[in-house]
């Protein structure tokens, strides 16, 4: 083995990318600019393509070199760039976006939502509580260990009292501060007449502190300050981990939202076009949508005709021809032509009222699911309180003094306080969520694992889920290679969505410089002295070939002099769809397809994957009906879908997944989102979840066994603070170590195509 | 046991200094970008900016 040379990570030479700003036309970013009292402006961007240490310098140096910018800071964890302009300087974000695009980074204006800010504040608060609890626990332990060793040797009662008073001085304010998250949650639960894990925690900590104070006042040998504060420290650790996992997902989701945020071409009253973020459009605005763009808002067509692909909304893959006066929904992809829309609904209101109604209904149904930890808490809390009460009564009956009996009851409460129990579930969740994230799966909900692990039926949407969202060339082998190359070069010059698919068939080509596009017909150019055309069959004189072509495919004709051919484009299955379906079936799961597309389009897919149960032309309500009848038969259904029409069924299924290309509303209602072109994440998610649930159960078992040993000791009056401290930290450490095994969950397929 | 009179306050104040340092680092945003801190150490643009570094060439 030779000596290795340490090479500093250098930025690979990047190709310029098309900037998100588009580069032409007026841009309006005022929505994203924040201005402070002094007039200095600040703006945040989500940056794509940050993957090495050198990127940080490159991006920050470039930004700071631009006029007016005084500081630029890239957060490498969240891939966000914050840029500040000098007070009074004119902020030109478009300039920065274009400059970044030239060196190979796409930057998107980013607006931190309120939820995320609340989240960050909560995380900071938890961390502060954790620090205070940690400080207090360590220092009180220092004093406690002295008392314990002094008790068996020669400590004087005065010194012991001093140490106990010092402990009280540290423990009481620390617990009052660090215990807030639990006290508040317990208070909310009690007020709602419910019991959660925080109720016994609050009672245990409160009683332990009160009794310790009482004991200290009466010069006793033992005090429980250390147990109370250490309990808080361990519990806060679990809670912080749990929170950090969900925050990470939300950050990713926020970036994705910025990356996918649409811009809209607003028609100003004077007739000029201004590109603005879709969020800046209000109902009543006029918007222009050109070929190849998605409608950013719901609207009525004022002028123009165009064929639009609404597969993201209805699952239907055949384009629909729109004329003036018809309604179009946000997310519809314009194939050819230009539409001028009057906005009727924007942002969160942009989905069909029917879907909205169904969503409300479905979401409330889901709310009935009770998390594993809460289910345990419902059983556990009354049991703990009853045991403590019984041991108090038992010792009183057996003739012990009231003081002694209360001490034992408190010991029972402390020792049963769910230290390991509180860590058992979150620790596994955090580790398993990390595993999923490495496989390109992001979780939206914390209890996803528990529900995923129970799945026995998987329902897939077809368009965009089993198949890739974009169509692809289906008959590449039948088209002469040279002709396909010409088609791909011509396609690069066109904005038509089908042209993008043709171009993707032969990547890395140079576009034809002199190409001329005839709207509604195709592209034309001179190649090698002969006329080359790409477009409709009529445009290329290929009508006679149409009869022989497959009836379900979209057709694009290409002609180069006398050579001509029809290119068939259709939705292709995700590359590993077959393998994943087979693996799911082998694991004993039932597979069904729920599609909004025509039966003629669904049948071949179902046949190719050997799926017997499929429903075509299913409206959102039909999909929910099927899911409900399945769950009525006792099945737990995982719904995988991407369309707007899938949103209600995703919300009503037991658990749901959606690809990252899904409609915004749909993605928001999925329990988890997966990246990349593969379907494998569905299987990985199920495997990791099954593993996680096993570990959660093991952890809960460990907690129960610990209680079975510790509680009798406590009831027998044998638990000194020392025993309590050792037992509590011991069980927490074991549970945490066991949770780390969730790292190895799922098949080892680190290399995900993205 | 007189030694306790200054050892215990000393131990406690050391702990408090640690706690204060943590609170300061949290407030100054050092926990906002943990991955970034790990790679920023590799960049040496601070050498170029250092006074005298250019003159010694």
UniProtKB/TrEMBL annotation, chain A:
GO terms for molecular function: ATP binding; ATP hydrolysis activity; copper ion binding; P-type divalent copper transporter activity. One of its GO terms (biological process) is copper ion homeostasis. Keywords: ATP-binding, Cell membrane, Ion transport, Magnesium, Membrane, Metal-binding, Nucleotide-binding, Phosphoprotein, Translocase, Transmembrane, Transmembrane helix, Transport. It is found in: Cell membrane. SUPFAM superfamilies: Calcium ATPase, transduction domain A (SSF81653), Calcium ATPase, transmembrane domain M (SSF81665), HAD-like (SSF56784), HMA, heavy metal-associated domain (SSF55008). Residues 41-108 form the HMA domain. It is a multi-pass membrane protein. Signal peptide: none annotated. The chain crosses the membrane at residues 129-150, 162-183, 195-217, 223-241, 379-398, 404-428, 700-716. GO terms for cellular component: plasma membrane. It comes from the Bacteria. Belongs to the cation transport ATPase (P-type) (TC 3.A.3) family. Type IB subfamily. This is Cu2+-exporting ATPase. It comes from Ancylobacter tetraedralis.
From TrEMBL, chain B:
Keywords: Membrane, Transmembrane, Transmembrane helix. The chain crosses the membrane at residues 6-26. The keyword Membrane applies. InterPro entries: Cyt_oxidase_maturation_cbb3. NCBIfam families: ccoS. This is Cbb3-type cytochrome oxidase maturation protein. It comes from Ancylobacter tetraedralis.
């Amino acid at each position: 083995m030779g000596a290795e040379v340490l090479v500093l990570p250098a930025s690979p030479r990047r190709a310029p990318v098309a900037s998100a700003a588009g580069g032409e036309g007026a841009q309006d970013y005022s929505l994203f600019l924040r201005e402070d009292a002094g007039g200095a402006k600040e703006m945040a961007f989500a940056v794509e393509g940050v993957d090495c240490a050198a990127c940080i310098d490159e991006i920050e140096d470039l930004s700071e070199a631009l006029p007016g910018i005084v500081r630029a800071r890239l957060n490498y964890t969240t891939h966000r760039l914050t840029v500040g302009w000098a007070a009074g300087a004119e902020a030109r974000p478009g300039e920065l976006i274009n400059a970044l695009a030239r060196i190979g980074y796409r930057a998107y204006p980013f607006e931190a939502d309120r939820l995320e800010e609340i989240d960050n504040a909560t995380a900071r608060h938890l961390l502060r509580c954790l620090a205070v609890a940690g400080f207090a626990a360590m220092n009180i332990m220092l004093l406690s260990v002295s008392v314990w060793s002094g008790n068996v040797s020669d400590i004087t009662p005065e010194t012991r009292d001093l140490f106990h008073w010092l402990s009280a001085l540290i423990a009481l304010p620390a617990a009052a501060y660090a215990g807030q998250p639990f006290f508040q949650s317990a208070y909310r639960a009690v007020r709602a007449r419910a019991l959660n894990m925080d109720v016994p925690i609050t009672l245990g900590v409160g009683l332990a502190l009160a009794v310790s104070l009482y004991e200290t006042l009466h010069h006793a040998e033992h005090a429980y300050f250390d147990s109370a504060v250490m309990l808080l420290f361990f519990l806060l650790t679990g809670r912080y981990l749990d929170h950090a996992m969900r925050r990470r997902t939300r950050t990713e989701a926020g970036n994705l939202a910025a990356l996918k945020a649409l811009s809209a071409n607003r028609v100003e009253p004077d007739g000029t076009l201004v590109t603005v973020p879709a969020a800046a459009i209000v109902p009543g605005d006029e918007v222009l949508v050109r070929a190849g763009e998605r409608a950013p808002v719901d609207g009525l067509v004022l002028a123009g005709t165009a064929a639009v692909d609404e597969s993201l909304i209805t699952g239907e893959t055949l384009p629909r021809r729109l004329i003036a006066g018809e309604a179009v929904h946000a997310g519809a992809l314009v194939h050819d032509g230009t539409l001028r829309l009057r906005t009727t609904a924007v942002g969160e209101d942009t989905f069909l009222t029917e879907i909205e109604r169904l969503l409300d209904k479905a979401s409330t149904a889901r709310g009935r699911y009770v998390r594993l930890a809460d289910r345990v808490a419902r059983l556990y809390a009354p049991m703990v309180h009853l045991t403590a009460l019984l041991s108090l009564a038992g010792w009183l009956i057996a003739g012990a003094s009231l003081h002694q009996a209360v001490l034992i009851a408190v010991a029972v409460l402390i020792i049963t306080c769910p230290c390991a129990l509180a860590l058992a579930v979150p620790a596994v969740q955090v580790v398993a969520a990390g595993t999923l994230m490495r496989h390109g799966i992001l979780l939206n909900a914390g209890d996803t694992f528990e529900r995923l692990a129970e799945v026995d039926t998987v329902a897939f949407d077809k368009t965009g889920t089993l198949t890739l969202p974009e169509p692809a060339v289906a008959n590449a082998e039948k088209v002469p290679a040279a002709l396909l190359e010409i088609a791909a070069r011509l396609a690069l010059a066109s904005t038509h969505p089908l042209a993008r698919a043709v171009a993707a068939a032969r990547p890395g080509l140079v576009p034809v410089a002199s190409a001329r596009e005839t709207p509604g017909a195709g592209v034309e150019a001179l190649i090698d002295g002969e006329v080359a055309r790409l477009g409709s069959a009529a445009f290329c004189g290929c009508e006679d070939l149409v009869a022989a072509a497959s009836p379900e495919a979209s057709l694009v004709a290409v002609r180069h002099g006398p050579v001509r051919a029809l290119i068939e484009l259709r939705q292709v299955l995700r590359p590993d769809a077959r393998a994943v379906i087979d693996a799911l079936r082998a694991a004993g799961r039932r597979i069904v397809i729920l599609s909004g597309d025509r039966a003629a389009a669904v049948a071949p897919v179902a046949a190719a994957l050997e799926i017997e149960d499929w429903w075509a032309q299913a409206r959102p309500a039909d999909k929910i009906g099927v899911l409900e009848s399945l769950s009525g038969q006792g099945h737990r259904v995982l719904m995988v879908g991407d369309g707007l029409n899938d949103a209600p069924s995703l919300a009503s299924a037991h658990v749901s997944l959606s690809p990252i290309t899904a409609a915004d509303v749909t993605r928001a209602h999925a329990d988890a989102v997966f990246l990349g072109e593969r379907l494998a994440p569905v299987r990985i998610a199920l495997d990791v979840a099954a593993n996680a649930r096993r570990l959660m159960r093991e952890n809960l078992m460990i907690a129960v066994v610990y209680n079975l040993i510790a509680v009798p000791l406590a009831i027998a009056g044998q638990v000194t603070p020392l025993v309590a401290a050792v037992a509590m930290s011991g069980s927490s450490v074991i549970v945490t170590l066991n949770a780390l095994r969730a790292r190895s969950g799922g098949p080892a397929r680190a290399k995900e195509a993205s | 046991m007189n030694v306790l009179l200054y050892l215990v306050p000393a131990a406690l104040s050391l702990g408090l200094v640690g706690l204060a340092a943590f609170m300061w680092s949290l407030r100054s945003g050092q926990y906002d970008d943990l991955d970034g801190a790990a790679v920023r150490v590799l960049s040496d643009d601070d050498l170029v900016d250092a006074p005298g570094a250019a003159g010694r060439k």
